[in-house]
Design a protein that fits this description.
Elements: H1 3-28, H2 35-86, H3 90-104, E1 107-115, E2 122-128, H4 132-138, H5 146-154, E3 158-160, E4 182-189, E5 192-205, E6 212-214, H6 218-281, H7 286-313, H8 324-338, E7 342-347, H9 357-378, E8 382-390, E9 393-400, H10 407-412, H11 418-427, E10 431-436, E11 442-449
Parallel strand pairs: 7-8
Antiparallel strand pairs: 1-2, 1-5, 3-4, 4-5, 5-6, 8-9, 9-11, 10-11
Length: 457
């Protein structure tokens, strides 16, 4: 009953009742005032007031109970929304959605169907109120036939007093618990159905089986629809978080592959060259062969250290703690020691201290890969490494006087090596280019910002 109707009843009720008392007194008693008439009027008025008060307060109590129920539902809806915004594990979100929806409207059973990518069938089916043993006896979960499919196809709420009497119902499988009233709402995201929320058997009180059941009302539907909106956001957030995690894992795998190729594998290749050189010299130049073997042993110790660091910290340490000048000089020195190449390094007066440790390591990896490519493919006799400033950027060049790289290979490069150098340069906010020199040979040019602020995060 509305507040306006209660107000008019409160005004007109006593007036009408008093008029009826006056008419009754006139008909039953003389016009002169008597004790019997007064007693009659007092008894009738008192009885009428008691009945009227009882009726009015019963309505008020019912309204208060309804207000309390709605307040509790709204509070539970708020708490459910807070929980769903903090939970990012998709499986936990789905189970929590179905559990909370059942509590919100005091339903005995609840289920959540998550649709497949085509939006036609149910891919996941999560339940609440049904034990694991019961679920095991029921066999395969539903895929979207019957009443469950109606909500998927029509994308609008469905409320039934007895679902078993609806012609669209496809029946229950063996060992399925008996269900009566139904409230189903779609879970919508960006205009499309991504899932459906089903609730059955709204509980009202004690019965033979422990409960009596009633039908879901408009307010129940409103609450569940509001909750379905929050659930859609939570499910979408959890899915995005899972995708982000998968992308992060893929990115880390790519980084590991790049670091292994540009660091450890290149070092092992260099050690192999040292051992080949030692093998060739073993007969005629045993002293030089011994020195090559010592350098190979030292290199293997470095590789073992790097592998250990990968296992413990998942990051190589070969260039950690080096500034760019020192790192490039070490690479040049190793190149001279392990090959017959003449390697030179030239710097201008650019302040290299503005480079971060992360930038320095990436640049040194690019230089190491470039030198390794020269050694393996260029058939060169000399390599020149140049570092200088260029309009707020650092420009590093690696020039060789070899046979030059095949232009077709530059266009078709898909694996590690050149691709790694380009990827690392992109991560630094710069660019790596490999091109033929006019006077013969190949040039690698790396151009990156000198300040960390200009480097993409």
């Amino acid at each position: 009953m509305s507040n306006s109707r209660l107000k008019w009843i409160g005004i007109l009720g006593p007036v009408i009742f008093w008029l009826l008392v006056l008419v009754s007194r006139t008909e039953l008693f003389d016009e002169t005032r008597t004790l019997a008439g007064d007693i009659f009027a007092l008894v009738v008025i008192g009885t009428g007031a008691a009945v009227f008060s009882t009726l009015i307060f019963r309505v008020v109590e019912q309204r208060e109970a309804e207000i309390r129920r709605r307040t509790e539902q709204l509070r539970a809806l708020h708490e459910a929304g807070l929980f769903l915004t903090t939970e990012l594990d998709l499986a936990a979100v789905l189970q929590r959605v179905v559990d909370l929806s059942r509590q919100l409207v005091n339903a005995r059973y609840a289920a959540l169907g998550v649709l497949s990518e085509d939006g036609e069938t149910i891919d996941q089916f999560i339940t609440s109120g049904v034990t694991a043993e019961q679920r095991g006896r029921m066999g395969q979960p539903p895929t979207g036939h019957g009443l469950l499919g109606v909500i998927i196809r029509e994308a609008k709420p469905l409320r039934l007093p007895d679902l078993s009497r609806d012609a669209r119902a496809s029946g229950f499988p063996p060992h399925h618990p008996r269900m009566h009233s139904l409230l189903g709402v779609p879970i919508m995201s960006k205009g499309r159905v991504i899932g459906d929320l089903y609730l059955t058997d709204k509980m009202a009180g004690a019965h033979d089986d422990g409960h009596s059941y009633t039908v879901f009302d408009d307010h129940d539907q409103q609450i569940v629809e509001m909750f379905a909106t929050q659930a859609a956001i939570a499910v979408e957030n959890a899915q995005l978080y899972r995708q982000t995690q998968q992308l992060a894992i893929m990115k880390e795998r790519e980084r590991f592959g790049m670091d292994l190729h540009d660091g450890i594998i290149q070092s092992i290749y260099a050690i192999g060259l040292m051992l080949e050189d030692a093998q060739l010299r073993a007969g005629n130049e045993p002293a030089e062969a011994g020195e090559s073997i010592k350098r190979a042993i030292h290199g293997l110790n470095d590789v073992i250290r790097d592998i250990r660091n990968y296992i413990l910290e998942l990051r190589p340490q070969r260039f950690q703690g080096r500034d760019l000048r020192r790192g490039l000089e070490e690479l040049a020195r190793d190149m001279r020691a392990n090959s017959f190449l003449n390697v030179s390094v030239a710097f201008d007066n650019t302040d290299l201290s503005v480079l971060s440790a992360e930038q320095t390591v990436e640049i040194l990896h690019i230089a190491q890969e470039a030198l390794s490519n020269v050694r393996k493919h260029a058939r060169a006799t000399a390599v020149e490494i140049g570092v200088h400033g260029d309009d707020g950027h650092l420009l590093m060049t690696v020039d060789d006087n070899g046979q030059g790289i095949n232009p077709v290979r530059l266009d078709e490069e898909r694996g590690y090596g050149l691709g790694n150098m380009r990827e690392r340069a992109s991560n630094l906010g710069g660019e790596a280019r490999v091109e033929l020199r006019e006077r013969g040979g190949t040039r690698l040019s790396l151009r990156v910002p000198l300040t960390m602020e200009e480097t993409p995060k």
